[in-house]
Amino acid sequence: MSSTIMVGSGVNGLLLGALLSHEGDKVTVFEKNKAVGGRAILKEKDGYVIDNGLHVTRFGPLSAVAKVMDRMNRHVEYKKVGESFLIDHDGKTVLFPTRLGGMFKTGLFSFREKIKIVGLISKIKRGKFNHLMHLSLGDWMAQHNVTGGIRRYFELVSASLMVCPFVEKTSAGEMFRTLHKILNCNHSVEYPQQGWLPIFNGCIDEIKTNGDIKLNSKVDRVIVKDKKAIGVMVNGESFYADRVIINLPVQELFSVLSEEMFEADYVSLCKNLIPTSGVFIDIAIKKRISDIDGMIYTYAPKALGMITSNIAEGLTPENGQLLTMWYPTSLEDVIDPGMREKKLEELWGAIRRFFPDIDENIHWKREKALKIVDGAQINIHQTEDLRPAAKVPGIEQLFLVGDSIAAPGAGGDVGNESVLVTFEAITGKTL
Ligand SMILES: Cc1cc2nc3c(=O)[nH]c(=O)nc-3n(C[C@H](O)[C@H](O)[C@H](O)COP(=O)(O)OP(=O)(O)OC[C@H]3O[C@@H](n4cnc5c(N)ncnc54)[C@H](O)[C@@H]3O)c2cc1C
To answer: Are 264 and 281 in contact (CB under 8 A)?
Structure first.
């Protein structure tokens, strides 16, 4: 039996730890906080089980999460989201198309735009996009004379699918690659039917069959000997294993490793990787206020969210609802206290436009501004090929897993897919 130390118990550290444990490894997870989950940590209060902001999974049963859980014989049912709605720039509510058929029904596009968008979407469904990886979505739209409703649609797809509302930054190739997959596999945004709790619990059980999860255990540094990772130091104590996997966003890598061991370019790549950032508001609602079971969008601001309890079971007490709304913005905005407040105000404005009676129905609420939502913004300088690989260069038996490394997709998918990429780098096996 080989042994693995996992530094961090984010969702991707847990998924990979559980997968390796299932394959026979003794996995020890060290987590600095008092609970597992990292950025996807769950909160339970007064019978409401709430994600840390919205945590939808693209591709549902075909996602990396589903593949890992299936491999461990812990199948997770996913539910497709229902019809989605947008409050457009002019204040009108229209259908937000998530399938080809919706393109014809929605009031978002004029008749001419409907013809054009169907043509563009058909090309994306058939196409290959490697040559567009380093072209921004903004430049691609200018080249294709994309204006009006189609421009607003792509802007919102960029904000939601890519978690990047800045079309001048988003990689057109990466976005179309994700859209291509969605269009061809017929699975888009989905949510675990019973929420995330069974996924976390399944991973914890799997890890604990052979190994352990140590909470309140901050790794001070990874022990490297003769250019090989052999263990970690935690509170002055050494723990040894055959390999070490670091589950931190790469921006934080050198909190546990010495920069001197690496080439300057690698250090700079990791430290300067731009994450996605933004503000979100979660609301535990006292009584049922809406039946919408799809995504909800506003164009100004470019915000989105969902009533998760209309999709998943058992997340609220009887008649309660859970709403989570999210407004992606820049790291600079989140760091600046004035801008942060302004963004939160704008997000409240968006919520009240959708649900005018929300204020009198709030049981409790939570507001947060986050510097790192996803580890990597998928901009033209940070496409998959340009991010750090699963294997840490120059050090044997040292690996990374998480949403800032070279793995396919966008947003949280990158992290979930990284579980498969790192698993393959370690074991040579594919799922
Ligand atoms: C508001 C919000 C909304 C989101 N929405 C979605 C969504 O809809 N869909 C989606 O797929 N993704 C979404 N994401 C992104 C998703 O949450 C992340 O991709 C995912 O949680 C990252 O997990 P991870 O395991 O890679 O890293 P992390 O969650 O960052 O895990 C790292 C862990 O390491 C621990 N740690 C750090 N330093 C040490 C140390 N020295 N010693 C021990 N432990 C340490 C941390 O405490 C943490 O638990 C969202 C994120 C946020 C914040």
So the answer is: no
**Rounded CA gap, 198 and 18, in Å?**
13
Bond from prior residue into 301 cis (ω within 30 degrees of 0): yes
Ligand 1 centroid, distance to 167 Cα (angstroms):
25
Residue 53 lies in a domain: no
Question: Consecutive 10-residue runs of the chain (431 residues): their mean pLDDT?
Answer: 96 98 98 97 92 90 97 96 96 93 94 96 94 98 98 98 97 97 92 93 97 98 98 97 98 98 98 98 96 97 96 91 96 97 98 96 96 98 98 98 97 97 98 94
Could you tell me the distance, in angstroms and rounded to a whole number, from the CA of residue 201 to the centre of ligand 1? 16
Q: Is the Cβ–Cβ distance between 188 and 409 less than 8 Å? A: no
Ligand 1 atom nearest the C-alpha of 52 is 1
> How far is Cα 76 from Cα 68, in angstroms, rounded to an integer?
10
Q: Which residues pair with 325 in a beta bridge?
A: 281, 305
- The DSSP bridge pattern shows strands 84-87 and 321-329 to be unpaired
**264 is a domain residue:** yes
Of 370, 385, 404, which residue is a domain's last? Answer: 370
The answer to pTM > 0.85 is yes
The 3 state secondary structure assigned to 250-267 is: HHHHHHCCCHHHCCHHHH
Instruction: Determine the structural domain holding residue 419 and report its residue range.
Output: 3-36+59-71+194-273+377-427
- Measured between alpha carbons, how far is 293 from 362 in angstroms, rounded to an integer? 19
Q: Which amino acid is at 338?
A: G
- DSSP letter for 133, please: T
β-bridge partners, 283: 323, 365
CATH of the domain at 155: 1.10.405
DSSP state of 251: G
Considering the domain architecture, whether residues 32 and 66 belong to the same structural domain is answered as yes
Asked if 281 and 366 sit in the same domain, the reply is yes
Ligand 1 center to 375 CA (angstroms) = 8
